[in-house]
């Protein structure tokens, strides 16, 4: 270097970007096509789904009729109207998969767009620390989604006879093959959300926590229950389960966001107490009611025929209800495990320490 040359200092890259770039570089060094695919999706969570969504919409606009197969991605399939004066209801079929796939793409785009262009700006303005920035964005998105899904699910419940856990109507007049437009929209979008969450988890788009295995098991069991309840005409029960789960997640994600904002401990601890109360009430009491009604009320003669006739939509018998119970109880076991972690946090609050998530991030 000559004497007259002035060495310029490189502009420091924000630490949050360094962490993301480091994660990408480490992922690229790993061999295997699966890793390369996962890394590509990780880097293009806005562009990739947006391109596919645009292609589907443009393909539909070429011939905007129900006969165009791309209409199945954009609109509900299998409308049924018994007479011109009746409300249109919907059945089920293979084309529902297309609608689910479309909403997986939409939710992938919405998630990343919301995190990067809305929540991140707010987080930087609020002065959230670099190490908590990504977690704040993730939990902020879950808060927004669960607030919307709980509101929609509660409204749909209120329109049916099983509103506010009138459990016997989960089984009366089974099978519930036909669905209102709002219920079918809600159910398939929820299914898409949980399938997308499995993608986020398995591709490690979110940094894993210590309970990665338990969380993966939870997502897989949840998707099996959603798919099974949809195929076998237990959508009323599925609607109630969605509401019990999503309502608690509102308070959990909100409490975490407040923690990342580093508000006074008295505020975060009070929010944790509210979350803990809602968890016990919804995930153990109300969800326990769903388990109880499946065991005790599902096959009562005054509720339904309780026969095995799959061709006509009858999947509920005295023995098949135990298959449903098996999935529900597995999910409850996982929630009992997480409740034990909640009790650890509660002990920290009682002993004068503030609420911390005991499922801390795995060290790199």
Automatic annotation (TrEMBL):
The lineage of its organism: Eukaryota, Fungi, Fungi incertae sedis, Mucoromycota, Glomeromycotina. This is TLC domain-containing protein. It is found in: Membrane. InterPro entries: Lag1/Lac1-like (IPR016439), TLC-dom (IPR006634). Signal peptide: none annotated. Keywords: Membrane, Transmembrane, Transmembrane helix. The keyword Membrane applies. It comes from Rhizophagus irregularis (strain DAOM 181602 / DAOM 197198 / MUCL 43194). One of its GO terms (molecular function) is sphingosine N-acyltransferase activity. It comes from the Eukaryota. One of its GO terms (cellular component) is membrane. Residues 134-351 form the TLC domain. The keyword Flavoprotein does not apply.
């Amino acid at each position: 270097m000559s004497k007259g040359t002035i060495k310029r200092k490189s502009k420091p890259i924000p630490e949050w970007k360094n962490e993301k770039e480091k994660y990408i570089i480490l992922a690229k060094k790993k061999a295997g096509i699966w890793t390369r695919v996962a890394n590509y999706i990780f880097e293009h969570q806005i562009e990739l789904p947006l391109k596919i969504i645009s292609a589907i919409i443009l393909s539909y606009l070429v011939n905007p009729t129900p006969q165009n197969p791309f209409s199945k991605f954009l609109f509900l399939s299998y409308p049924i109207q018994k007479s011109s004066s009746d409300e249109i209801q919907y059945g089920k079929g293979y084309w529902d998969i297309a609608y689910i796939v479309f909403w997986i793409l939409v939710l992938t785009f919405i998630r990343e767009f919301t995190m990067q262009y809305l929540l991140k700006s707010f987080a930087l303005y609020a002065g959230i620390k670099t190490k908590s920035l990504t977690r704040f964005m993730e939990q902020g998105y879950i808060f927004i989604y669960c607030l919307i899904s709980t509101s929609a699910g509660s409204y749909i419940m209120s329109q049916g006879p099983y509103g506010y856990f009138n459990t016997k109507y989960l089984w009366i007049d089974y099978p519930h093959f036909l669905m209102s437009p709002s219920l079918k929209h809600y159910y398939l979008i929820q299914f898409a959300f949980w399938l997308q969450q499995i993608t986020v988890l398995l591709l490690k788009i979110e940094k894993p926590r210590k309970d990665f295995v338990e969380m993966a098991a939870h997502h897989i069991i949840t998707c099996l229950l959603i798919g099974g309840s949809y195929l076998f005409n237990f959508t009323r029960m599925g609607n109630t389960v969605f509401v019990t789960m999503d309502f608690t997640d509102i308070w959990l994600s909100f409490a975490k966001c407040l923690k990342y904002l580093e508000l006074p401990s008295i505020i975060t601890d009070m929010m944790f107490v509210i979350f803990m109360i809602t968890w016990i009430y919804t995930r153990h009491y109300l969800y326990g009611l769903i388990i109880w009604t499946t065991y005790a009320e599902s096959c009562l003669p005054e509720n339904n025929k309780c026969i095995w006739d799959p061709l006509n939509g009858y999947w509920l018998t005295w023995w098949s209800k135990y298959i449903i119970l098996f999935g529900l109880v597995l999910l409850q076991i996982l929630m009992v495990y997480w409740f034990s972690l909640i009790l650890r946090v509660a002990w920290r609050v009682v002993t004068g320490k503030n609420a911390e998530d005991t499922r801390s991030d795995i060290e790199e």
